[in-house]
Every structure is written in C-alpha cells, then in structure tokens.
Amino acid sequence: MAKYFIATFILLALGIAVVYFTSGVPSVEKTDVSFLASATGPHFFQDPSRSLKNIVIFGFYFVPKNKLIHLNGDWRAQAESNLEKLKNFHALQFRGKSQVRYELYPDPVIGREENLFYDTEITQGGNPRALISVAEELEKRIFKPDGDLHTPNFKRPADEYPVSAIFYEGVGAAGGAIQDSQLNFPVEIAESLGIPESAIFILDVESVNGLLLVNREYLSGERGPNGDSIFAHEFYHTLGAPDGYAHESGIAGTSDLMGLGRMRPLAHTYLDKETLKSFGL
Ligand SMILES: [Zn+2]
C-alpha cells in the first residue's frame, strides 16, 4: 500500500495537468477510521468515507534563503485576511455544515535552500516541484517533534481534515490531495491511472491530507483582484475537487470557482451545485 498525491495546476498551466506523488508509508490514514461510519455530512470529493466536517489549514509563509530581500513585512495581515475570507466563503457554500479553522505559523519560514532548489525551470505548470520540496521541508522542520522549528500546535490532528497552505515568496499556484493506493510502486499506480510514470513523485508527508502552494503576491492583490479566488481554488483541490476547465485549451466547463469563476474576486464567485453534491451536500 502506498500514498499518492494528486495536484492540479492552474493559471499558467498548459503542460502538466496532473501530478501524483507517492510515499511508501501508509500508516496515517488508519487514524481516520473512527468516523467512517458516521460520515454522513460533508465529505471528501466523491468519497463519503472521509469526513470534511472539520478542516484545519496549517498556513506558512515560506521564503527561499536567497529571497530574504523580498520578505514582505505585511505577510501576516495578508495571510490572515485571505484565510478569513476563505473561512467565510466555505461556511456559506457548505451551509455551515463544515468548519474551517487555521493555524498560521507565527514566523516566516526561511528555506534551507535557494529558490532554484525548490523551483524547476518549468514553473508554468504551477510549480509542483516547489510544492513537493517545501512540503517535505515543513514536514521535517515543523511537524516532526525533533524539527528545528517544531511547535506543539503543528501536528496531525485526531479528528480534523488537515491541509497545509504554503504562501510562497516565488512563482506558483498548485494544490491537491494525498490519496491512498493499494499498489506499492509508482509504475503500478501510473498504469492503473493511465498516466505516465514520470508524473509520479515520491512524497514524504504524513501530517496532512492535502497541500497547496500559492505565490504570496496572490494574497496581497499584487497579481490582480482575484488572488483570493486563486487561493480558494487551490484549497478546494486539497479537498479533491477537480478543475472546471480544460488544461490544454483553458476553456472553462463551469462558471464557478473551479472554472471561469476563479477569474473573479471571491466575493463574486461560488461553488456550483454539482461540485457541492460531490462533497455530500
Ligand atoms: Zn485548478
């Protein structure tokens, strides 16, 4: 049994549509069994066995060590305002049946590496490489009890659906959920999903069920008035929602946040009926 991660990428995404990450360590999902039977309310996209009644977002402002000069002094207010907006949007869309709370890591996390380590030359695909390498560094340094930046609030919760949100001082917009597979090897998972093996990445993250990364400038509005929607769009990927537009052409199939509606500010968009139905609403 292995874990794999599905990330879908937006905006500049024309090439890579889907990336799967795997990890050989399957233990963490077992803690979720306790609420399998009672999961009648909101649940993971098309999967009633995973409750979304309570969601926790662990937020991090992450700055590669060679980008310290770009560290934004207003990052906390920007992050909090976007997290609050998302919380309210979620409560409204899920009709109060699913609660989001967040824990914002108190200080900027200065990366151990320079941006070229985290990024790839192909950041157009949403920068999934940064998502993976930053998430693994956070796992080691913050979530593990022996990490140099560990604090007690940042650990896998017992009865909430945990997600990490990385506000990155660099390019990127990506999000996805970590999935379990009965298969052991990337090549087998790739085959069963009908995707190339090169799209499978090994990921060593056990503390959360979903990951997203967005350029910090989306939070401040520097990248347009729909930055809050881009953040929210990536968040719903961490709950399993797919894109509502075609990756190759960019043509939208839906008008909501997962499709064309991601181009509007969050106050002027919504999740459509079909999406909500798949979340058990
Ligand atoms: Zn997307």
Would you write up a description of this structure?
The chain is an alpha/beta fold and 281 residues long. It has a single domain, classed as Collagenase (Catalytic Domain) (3-Layer(aba) Sandwich), CATH 3.40.390. It has seven helices and eleven strands. Strands 1, 2, 5, 6, 7, 8, 9, 10 and 11 form a nine-stranded mixed β-sheet that branches. A two-stranded antiparallel ribbon has the order 3-4. Strand 1 and strand 2 form a beta hairpin. It is globular, with a radius of gyration of 17 Å. 43% of the residues are buried. About 11% of the residues have low confidence. The chain binds zinc ion. The site of zinc ion has 5 residues, from helix 6.
Tell me briefly what this model is:
With 281 residues, this protein is α/β, with parallel strands linked by helices.
The best one-word shape is globular
Protein structure class: alpha/beta
Q: Which strand-content bin applies to the residues?
A: 15-25%
- SSE succession: EEEEEHEEHHEEHEEHHH
In angstroms, what separates the terminal alpha carbons?
Answer: 30 Å
Q: Major sheet: size, sense and barrel closure?
A: 9 strands, mixed
Ligand inventory:
zinc ion
CATH class: Alpha Beta
Radius of gyration: 17 Å
The portion of residues assigned to helices is 10-25%
Total of DSSP H or I helical runs spanning 4+ residues: 7
Number of strands: 11
Low-confidence stretches: 8-39
Number of domains: 1
Mean pLDDT: 84
CATH architecture: 3-Layer(aba) Sandwich
CATH topology: Collagenase (Catalytic Domain)
